[in-house]
Design brief:
- It catalyses: L-glutaminyl-[protein] + L-lysyl-[protein] = [protein]-L-lysyl-N(6)-5-L-glutamyl-[protein] + NH4(+).
- This is Coagulation factor XIII A chain.
- By secondary structure, the protein is mainly beta.
- 14% of the residues lie in helices and 39% in strands.
- The chain starts with a helix and ends with a strand.
Length: 735
């Protein structure tokens, strides 16, 4: 007796004075559902076999069958049924005898999680009726034959997304008979950009194919003068990726009942993509040492990262902004939210969100790295997700900025967004979430300020056009670049731009006006700076040009400071100092060349081969200072990829990757990675070393699974050289 009593005690839920049932945020956990639910005492002669009984349920869940075809889910490498919400799908039920509508009564039940409840959308009973209403749960019989019936089932256009368990219940006079738990009938329900009633509805078919169904993309990097691109494999349809994405929501402890809302999903996902809170997916590292992990530049796609996290439950090392954005994009597209990866060139990381980045100069006019806390990232990647914003006034739906890179906290956690792009453009930064921070990333001004001995600050120069010069994403249906700067801001200097700025200031963005500081710039001399395009390991030259528009002769004491920087604009070390006096004749231009030798920069080069030049010139006659800064990126050699053999689905082929070491040194600890969604899973290979000028060749055999145009992506990582990529488009034929 005591044993059974104690085991009953254990089964009871822990008491909690505040809520009747515990929080329900695991899609994986289940409750036990009774096969016979009696209404009272069962008479002795009752035999469940005398009643209608379900023998089998057929789900039409193969990729070539009607459900996955009509719901655009045929690419998911997953044996279970996957459908999109707000759209009908079909199942067939086989009974032990023909179904008699006059006397037989049955219904379907979809359940999710450990504590299914009808008012939370985690227990959904569906009675068979005569008509299906669009966007509401319902079922109707569309075909009857012998002992079977075929049902068309409509799901709600607002239902929660995730994995549901399916039961069929039959009513008898003495109780309810249910089918057994059968995981083969589990049904995944996803967002539906094809359904007008869904919050993520997107009306252009080409855009849906790009932003939901394309499993490879392009990351734009480099800098504004020298845009570089590389491919990234999103792999949202690969095996186990869907389950890994659902696990992220469990990890973020998002209540199951909130999982129909794309705003909530984006908000919690932007926090769980990084490991700064609650041990999220990727650990960021920006310090060029990546012990016990993978260098951010070596990843070729999201699948390895998500699957490693799903199995280990520990943050994967390491990522930088494009890695966070690439994985976030996979998560969004996998769940059916249209998404794209964005690059903002010259992105402001403004530590106090006052719309100004302060670069402090010392007495000589050189930048004081001790005092300067703000930084300009050569580029920064984030994502945009497409959805309606019923929580904001009309007109702010559409693309929303979401950012998984941990930069600043928002409501106590490292996350950012969703934030309406339209609100950023018009300066309506009062609308949630994190609009002031995103507005500053694309709109800040750079102030060059001199600290006088007595502590006063003198503004020497203001650059209003450097930040957010170019904002881009991959074009729809191609690998080219689409300029979307105008989505975020009006043309520099236009009336609308000033108005948007005034609106942002009115809504509480802090902006110090120039009137607050003493500022009289030198207007009759202009200074410009250009760097020659150069290949890694070679010398190159930079040119400083002055235009003296006045009738006076001037002399300018000029400082050039060359720094090796992380792409975040943070300096590792100054490798070049050069100062000279320039004579500026009236009404004329004069140029000065400075040579940068490879021996000056090679020893300390960081992985993206980024330099940052500050040039400051003091006009001796007036004491005024001119300042300009510019990032420049070296050309890094690429990997060559080719194929051998027939390119046919199901047949063996070879992929050959080649690389020639261009440096005047041996490359140590070389790792190659190769992947291609639908062609091969990621393969890694370690090579000890590549001597200078020698060529490495690596051949991989694989059997492509999916026909169509696919992409192969490779990366090389070593101690001295990273960010080396190659790619190849291959057309895989049908067998």
């Amino acid at each position: 007796m005591s044993e059974t009593a104690s085991s009953n005690e254990e089964k009871k839920l822990p008491l909690n004075g505040r809520r009747a049932i515990p929080p329900n945020y695991s899609n994986d956990e289940e409750n036990e559902v009774p096969e016979m639910e009696a209404f009272g005492l069962i008479p002795r002669g009752f035999n469940p076999r005398d009643y209608l009984r379900v023998e089998d349920i057929y789900m039409f869940k193969d990729p070539h069958e009607i459900n996955k075809q009509e719901h655009h889910t045929d690419k998911y490498y997953n044996p279970k049924l996957i459908v999109r919400r707000g759209q009908a799908f079909q199942i067939q039920i086989y009974f032990n005898r023909p179904y008699k509508p006059e006397t037989d009564q049955f219904w379907l039940e979809f359940l999710m999680g450990r504590y299914p409840q009808q008012n939370k959308g985690t227990y959904i009973p569906i009675v068979v009726g005569n008509v299906l209403k669009p966007g509401q749960w319902g079922a109707k019989i569309i075909h009857r034959e012998n002992n079977s019936i075929r049902l068309s089932i409509m799901s709600s256009a607002t239902c929660i997304i995730g994995k549901f368990r399916l039961y069929v219940a039959v009513l008898t006079p003495f109780g309810i008979l249910r089918t057994r738990r059968n995981s083969a009938t589990d049904t995944y329900i996803l967002f539906n950009p094809w359904c007008q009633l869904d919050a993520v509805y997107l009306d252009d078919e080409k855009e849906r194919e790009e932003y939901v169904l394309n499993d490879v993309g392009i990351v734009f990097h480099g800098n504004v003068e020298d845009v570089k691109s590389r491919s990234w494999s999103y792999g949202q349809f690969e095996e186990n990726v869907l389950d890994a994405c659902l696990f992220l929501m469990d990890k973020a402890e998002l209540e199951l009942s909130g999982r129909g809302n794309p705003i909530k999903i984006c908000r919690v996902a932007s926090a769980v993509i990084n490991s700064r809170d609650e041990n999220g997916v990727i650990a960021g590292s920006w310090n060029n040492s990546y012990d016990y992990g993978v260098a951010p530049s070596a990843w070729t796609g999201s699948v390895d990262i998500l699957l490693e996290y799903y199995s280990s439950k520990q943050p994967v090392r390491y990522g930088q902004c494009w890695v966070f954005a690439g994985v976030f994009n996979t998560f969004l597209r996998c769940l059916g939210i249209p998404a794209r990866l964005i690059t903002n060139y010259s992105s402001a990381h403004d530590n106090n969100a006052n719309l100004r980045l302060d670069f402090f100069l010392d007495d000589e006019g050189k930048v004081d790295t001790r005092l300067t806390k703000d930084s300009v990232w050569n580029y920064h990647c984030w994502n945009e997700a497409w959805m309606t914003r019923p929580d904001l006034p009309v007109g702010f739906g559409g693309w929303q900025v979401v950012d998984g890179t941990p930069q600043e906290t928002s409501d106590g956690m490292y996350r950012c967004g969703p934030c309406s792009v339209q609100a950023i453009k018009h300066g309506h930064v009062c609308f949630q979430f994190d609009a002031p921070f995103v507005y500053a990333e694309v709109n800040s001004d750079i102030f060059y300020t001199k600290m006088e001995k007595n502590g006063t600050q003198v503004v020497e120069s203001i650059d209003t056009t450097h930040i957010g010069q170019l904002i881009v994403t991959k074009e729809v249906g191609g690998d080219g670049m689409m300029d979307i700067t105008e989505d975020y801001k009006f043309r520099e200097g236009s009336d609308e731009e000033r108005l948007a700025l005034e609106t942002a200031v009115m809504y509480g963005v802090k902006k110090q006006s120039v009137q607050d500081t003493t500022y009289q710039p030198q207007t009759d001399v202009e200074m410009d700076f250009q760097a020659q395009k150069a290949v890694l390991g070679n010398d190159f030259k930079v040119t400083i040009t002055f235009r003296n528009k006045s009738r006076n002769s001037y002399t300018a004491t000029t400082y050039l400071s060359g720094n090796i920087v992380f792409y975040t604009g943070v300096a590792k070390r100054e490798f070049k100092k050069h100062s000279f006096s320039a004579k500026l004749e009236p009404s004329s231009s004069s140029s000065f060349d400075i040579v940068i030798k490879s021996s000056e920069y090679m020893s300390d080069l960081l992985e993206q081969a980024s330099f940052h030049f500050f040039v400051t010139a003091r006009i001796n006659e007036t004491g005024k200072i001119l300042a300009v800064q510019k990032a420049t990126v070296l050309e890094i050699p690429t990997l060559r990829i080719k194929t051998k053999g027939e390119l046919v689905a199901g047949k063996e082929m070879s992929v050959i990757v080649e690389f020639t070491n261009p440096l005047r040194q041996t490359l140590e600890n070389v790792t190659l990675r190769l992947e291609g969604p639908g062609v091969l899973r990621t393969i890694k290979k370690q090579f000890g070393r590549i001597p200078m000028n020698s060529t490495l060749t690596w051949e991989v055999k694989c059997i492509p699974m999916r026909p169509g145009l696919r992409k192969l992506i490779a990366s090389l990582s070593s101690d001295a050289l990273r960010h080396v990529y190659g790619e190849l488009n291959v057309q895989i034929q049908k067998p």
